[in-house]
């Protein structure tokens, strides 16, 4: 009997690119510039900051593309690290991603959406709006893959069009500021090696996080060995261009003194460009754009929990899917965590301490590219990372520098992150121990 259309539906290249773009273009690009300009005044260094962050993401996407083509299964780092190193390492990656890596950023994007919506409609409750959006999108993604995919493509296309339109109109009407975007003195280059640049790069890296989103859906992508590398590369390049262009417009059109210390950068710039009324409209537009970010994370995150449940008996209930192949229980699990972060309002602290371990696992994954080539040189690789070994080495160098700086400048957050890993190890070995025990009443 032929399978139904819904059960055989596969994610297209277009939907995959939409998921990557939507995951990446979230709160970071609309909030972090105000803090960067507090310590960095050079326009060249500020744009290089976003360029370097994009290079890190692009080198990571090239490396992940080879791993995804060689090991085409959903689950992302959980699947790769389990095969390359040890199942315990893979479990820790999935533990961090499923409990913090997706749920907390989803909550962050939803709460930012609520705050931007309130700037347009003051009577709106930010928390109520955040919860309503999360629940509505979770319901859509649990209903069918086709509905979730079409929604994702539609709202991501809207996001890109709004941002490109904002850059075009902003460039046309802006009053140019006295800021240089080409290196003018040696100090412009020296700022690239300064502690302030390193601090800002941590937040830029967060803004670029999500470039690997499609690897969590590998098993649901059409011809993943062929299409997944394309999805990762095209999605990352689109975001790199958007980020550099957006920050150019922010700096070109608005005095640094006005941007300094501001959280809602998009609202501030739109107000400076078009006036208070247009600033409120832009606040509403950004709220709509953040719907795409929340949607993509609700789409991708549960696939990690699903794959972990397939491998670990203790989590087996979360691996169950409905007749359409959608991991409903895993989606409900992530949605519950997201709502918990929204209601307790402590997720931003969680993100700070989780930043170290999340970067650690992307570092280990790209390092695994070298390990896998050494251990399994004859493994079929339909796609090989462009620029190997330079591109993965560049990712490891830049990402390793960021990890070292986080560990040195934020020791408590690093220790909390390592504590999360220790708790994950306890859960893993407890689950293994339970799985090894014979059922009650059985005889040896």
Automatic annotation (TrEMBL):
It is found in: Membrane. Keywords: Membrane, Transmembrane, Transmembrane helix. InterPro entries: AA/rel_permease1 (IPR002293), AminoAcid_Transporter (IPR050598). One of its GO terms (molecular function) is L-amino acid transmembrane transporter activity. The keyword Transmembrane applies. It comes from Hymenobacter luteus. It is a multi-pass membrane protein. This is APA family basic amino acid/polyamine antiporter. It comes from the Bacteria. The keyword Transmembrane helix applies. The chain crosses the membrane at residues 12-38, 44-67, 88-114, 120-141, 153-175, 195-219, 231-252, 351-374, 386-407, 413-431. GO terms for cellular component: membrane.
């Amino acid at each position: 009997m032929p399978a139904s259309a819904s059960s055989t539906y596969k994610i297209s290249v277009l939907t995959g690119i939409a998921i990557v773009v939507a995951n990446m273009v979230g709160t970071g690009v609309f909030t972090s510039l105000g803090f960067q300009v507090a310590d960095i005044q050079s326009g060249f260094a500020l744009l290089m900051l976003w360029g370097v962050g994009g290079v890190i993401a692009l080198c990571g996407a090239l490396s992940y593309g080879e791993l995804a083509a060689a090991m085409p299964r959903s689950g992302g780092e959980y699947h790769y690290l389990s095969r390359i190193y040890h199942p315990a390492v893979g479990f820790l990656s999935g533990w961090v991603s499923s409990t913090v890596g997706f749920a907390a950023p989803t909550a962050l994007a939803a709460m930012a959406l609520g705050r931007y919506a309130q700037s347009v409609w003051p009577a709106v409750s930010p928390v109520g709006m955040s919860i309503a959006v999360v629940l509505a999108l979770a319901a859509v993604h649990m209903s069918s893959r086709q509905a979730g995919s079409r929604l994702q493509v539609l709202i991501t296309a809207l996001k890109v069009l709004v941002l490109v339109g904002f850059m075009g109109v902003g460039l046309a009407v802006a009053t140019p500021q006295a800021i240089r975007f080409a290196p003018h003195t040696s100090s412009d280059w020296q700022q690239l090696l300064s502690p302030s640049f390193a601090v800002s790069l941590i937040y830029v890296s967060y803004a670029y996080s999500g470039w690997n989103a499609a690897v969590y859906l590998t098993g649901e992508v059409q011809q993943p060995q062929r299409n997944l590398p394309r999805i990762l590369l095209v999605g990352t390049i689109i975001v790199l261009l958007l980020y550099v262009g957006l920050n150019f417009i922010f700096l070109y059109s608005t005095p640094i003194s006005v941007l300094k210390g501001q959280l809602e950068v998009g609202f501030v710039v739109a107000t400076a460009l078009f006036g208070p009324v247009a600033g409120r409209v832009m606040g509403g537009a950004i709220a709509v754009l953040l719907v795409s970010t929340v949607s993509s994370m609700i789409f991708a995150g549960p696939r990690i929990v699903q794959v972990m449940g397939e491998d670990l008996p203790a989590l087996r209930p979360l691996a169950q899917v409905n007749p359409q192949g959608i991991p409903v229980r895993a989606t409900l699990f992530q949605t519950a965590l997201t709502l918990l972060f929204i209601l307790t309002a402590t997720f931003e602290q969680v993100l700070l301490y989780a930043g170290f371990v999340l970067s650690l696992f992307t570092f280990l994954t790209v390092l695994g590219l070298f390990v896998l080539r050494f251990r399994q040189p004859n493994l079929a690789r339909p796609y090989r990372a462009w620029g190997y070994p330079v591109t993965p080495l560049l990712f490891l160098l830049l990402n390793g520098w960021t990890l070292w700086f986080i560990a040195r400048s934020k020791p408590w957050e690093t220790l909390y992150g390592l504590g999360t890993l220790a708790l994950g190890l306890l859960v893993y070995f407890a689950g293994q121990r339970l799985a090894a025990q014979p059922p009650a009443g059985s005889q040896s």
